[in-house]
Design goal:
Number of domains: 2
Number of strands: 13
Order of helices and strands: EEEHEEHEHHHHHEHEHEEHHHEHEEH
Mean pLDDT: 88
Helix content: 25-40%
Low-confidence stretches: 1-7
Bound molecules: adenosine-5'-triphosphate
Structural class: alpha/beta
Strand order of the largest sheet: 6-7-8-3-9-10
Number of helices: 14
Length: about 325
């Protein structure tokens, strides 16, 4: 993901614009004092911040499960505060922690929920359900007829994603979608999800409290503090490398240099020329691998340099000091 908003956006993906949105709950709690944020079409933006800072409130204002008390929200050029909320929610996929599948309906029926509401012909719905289950890595013949309680947590999560994508929504909202599964399954689901997103290129806003998840998934990350205040809105590498405030610095943690290595690829710009012997005996790293993986290869072999290859051909030499510089932070 190169973080360029909007490039290669999927069919029908819409940008989201939050213009000075506010939410004051009836009891007087100011969950969001004023927030402006732009999400490009086809971009995956992560909202992160301490508990109670207003992340879920922001997310739910986008599909109007919660009515904003001020400001405007645009999907593309449409002001969502002026359209019927039920019709709006059919255009927006929504995935929540523990998924919220209907327990007495089969997997296929769950995935078919929104196409059913939209009155799609049965055959079209059936074809779409099969296509989506395959897309999320579940064999339709095997899983379509099961009930949610007959699935693992990770499988339920995938059904939740398939259901949210069923009617080809213009936007996907995800609230802690992977937090109910164990760390190993979570990492696998995140990787699969990134592959899926590369294919469908939806505009996605995802809420998490897990910084590693934010860094792994986000094209850009919005760090919020209490009252929905936007502390910083940046790519993962920029956020980790140059925190905009003490709040962000503390939030991204003392190990942000290591995290930054994981999201910074090895490029030609950091390479030195190959030595006369072509770097015989040195470990190999591929161009585009993360600086974190390169450092791992260097540490494992004990070498000061690695040979960087592109399509199997050596293109330069990478010094350990250059790798460390890639993780430098302000
Ligand atoms: N219905 C409500 N009535 C009054 N206050 C509410 C309501 N819902 C949420 N709040 C308050 O609004 C603030 C923001 O809540 P929200 O759930 O958006 O935060 P969050 O960042 O998603 O939190 P978490 O990470 O803990 O899920 C909190 O102070 C919360 O107590």
């Amino acid at each position: 993901m190169d973080g360029t908003p909007g490039d290669a956006a999927g069919h029908g993906a819409a940008s989201i614009t939050l213009e000075r949105i506010r939410k004051r709950y009836p009891d007087g709690t100011e969950a969001v004092r004023e927030l402006s944020l732009q999400v490009g079409a086809g971009e995956l933006v992560v909202l992160i911040g301490p508990s109670g800072c207003g992340k879920s409130t922001v997310l739910r204002m986008i599909n109007r499960l919660i009515e904003p008390t001020g400001g405007r929200i645009l999907l593309g050029d449409d002001d969502v505060t002026r359209v019927d909320p039920v019709a709006l929610r059919r255009r927006i996929g929504y995935v929540i922690q523990n998924v919220g599948l209907f327990p007495h309906q089969t997997v296929a029926a769950n995935v078919a929920t929104v196409p059913g509401l939209l009155g799609w012909p049965k055959q079209r719905t059936r074809a779409r359900v099969g296509e989506l289950l395959e897309l999320v890595g579940l064999d339709p013949a095997q899983f379509g007829r099961r009930y949610p309680h007959e699935l693992s947590g990770g499988q339920r999560q995938r059904v939740g994603v398939a259901r949210a994508l069923a009617a080809d929504p213009v936007v996907l909202l995800m609230d802690e979608p992977f937090s109910a599964v164990d760390p190993i399954v979570r990492t696998r689901l995140q990787e699969e999800f990134l592959r899926l997103q590369a294919e469908v290129r939806k505009t996605i806003v995802l809420v998490t409290h897990d910084l590693d998840e934010a860094v792994r998934l986000g094209d850009r990350i919005a760090v919020l503090s209490e009252g929905g205040r936007l502390e910083q809105y940046d790519t993962p590498a920029a956020l980790l490398g140059s925190p905009a405030s003490d709040f962000v610095r503390e939030f991204v943690g003392a190990d942000r240099g290591i995290r930054r290595l994981a999201v910074t690829p090895v490029t030609r710009a950091v390479l030195d020329p190959l030595p006369a012997d072509g770097g015989a005996g040195l470990p190999n790293v591929a161009l585009g691998d993360s600086a974190y993986d390169a450092l791992g290869a260097l540490l494992t072999s004990g070498a000061e340099h690695a040979v960087v290859t592109e399509e199997g051909r050596a293109v330069g030499l990478l010094a350990r000091t250059r790798v460390l510089a890639l993780g430098a932070v302000d």
